Amino acid sequence: MTMLQHPLFRLSAVAFATLTVISCTSTTPTAPPTTTQPTAPTPPSEPVPSRVVIVQPQTPTAPTPTPAPSVENRYYGSFGDWKSDFITRTIAGGHASHAVHGLMGSASLNSQVISLDGRQAEFAKMPWSYVESAVTSGRVSNGRAKLREYPSLLSRAESQYGVPREVMVAIWGIESSYGAGTGSTDLVDALSSLAFDGRRRSFAEGELLAMLQMIERGDVSRSQLRGSWAGGMGHTQFIPSTWIKYGVDGNGDGQKNPWTISDALTSTAHYLGASGWVSGVDAFYEVRLPTGFNYQLLGQKQSLESWKSLGVVSANGEYFGGHAQAELWLPAGVNGPALLLTPNFDVIKVYNNSSSYALAVATLAKRIAGGAGISGNWPRHEQALSRSEVIRLQETLNAKGYSAGKADGVAGANTSRAFARWQADNGRIPDGFITQNSVRGLVW
Hints:
The chain has 16 helices and seven strands. With about 450 residues, it is mainly α. Among the domains are: about 285-370, Lysozyme; about 385-440, no CATH class. GO terms for molecular function: peptidoglycan lytic transglycosylase activity. Keywords: Lyase, Signal.
């Protein structure tokens, strides 16, 4: 996972920036109302039931300790200086000396982690490229095999938390290829290196403290702490602080271990359920729009039945309807597929705050369950902007009063919304899709 905002770290607007920045390997979960922390790249069709289930989170076992904010900007001359100070502060905070030294005694600097954390892709990835690289035929067939392999486990988690089994399995597939790629980086070294680097010291030290809690309560051993350079652990790549809050003992052995399949999948269902998953509603429905459709409705939320009354129909015969709210999203602009996004699309984004990630998970889930993927044609001739060009676009939008936010070179939701407002004011369809062609007349 990358350190981009992911369900556990970090990580929806209809006019989303379809250009997802890719940096390193898989993703990692964060606690619901907060944004997910950065993660590195590694890279369901059923009738609506009569009842809606929204599962509330279990009471966290214990609050995650946080380091004193006064150290956030402190300068350390060496990794050893930071390590010694962190050990001292952690023991002073009430943790047993032997436990702290057991966790931190062998911690060493991993310069590659610092390099990966600071890396930024020059070009973003178009949504179809992201989805197609994630939703492969192998992932689909392996996901279906996992449904057959763990029917009781998945049925139990689905019943308890209201999250479809294919969604749990899809996240498992994208996060670690069903356990084949949980990561081999020493997590203590990785997070210690990020803490020493200082840019996100508070986050990294908080995750180290959460790992210490996991060891103290008997969930894992120090030797098991290997995963993503960004902090992702186990089959579904939770970061430690989110695991402390949402980890579940899925097999009754008294431990909550993210490297145990039953615990990981049950915890994933718990995390999504606690984040507001609505039972019986897909994350998205692919639709066709009627001739003369009013594109000013993009971004507005209406019930699925209301969209149907406007002439919006399923693109593939998939049933949709009912009172669940949905918004229309054109992930590749007016010349690409049209999707109705339900609240469950945003729930997936608590796992990784990327619309392309959520689209990949939801598409893989549909395929695993035996449904169709996205049938609409993608405008593959369109080209992304470079980071420097996105900065130029953001600066231009801000100068014209469209409030794109900080000019950081990432075409996120704020930039897409600002661009859609400019499109509407200039007689264009306000789809918010940012490409070399669509910004002509504004940037060049």
